[in-house]
Amino acid sequence: MSEKPEVDFTPGPAPTDLVIEDITIGEGDEAVNGGVVDVHYVGVDFETGEQFDSSWDRGQSARFPLPQLIGAWQQGIPGMKVGGRRKLVAPPELAYGPAGGGHRLSGRTLVFVIDLLGVG
Q: In the chain, which residues have pLDDT < 70?
């Protein structure tokens, strides 16, 4: 996976539970709870389809300890294998919290497409 993914608009109401969808199954090492991941990702607002973040646009991947990430990533990345691409649809409770939570994305359902480049 060497190119930025397009995130398709999803019609209908936003899901209330985390949705995990494998786009490509990787064949490398597996991400584990509490581990460190090296990822490329795109994030868009479920309702508007507008991109709010992308490591691709910065030209470099992002390396994170999973425990420091939003709940959707903590639940949705473990089990993924290096070389894989996964789509997560995160309700507000697993993203940046309910509306009025102080983050610009509070109260929003978010869609992420994540490429797992490495684990540590």
A: 1
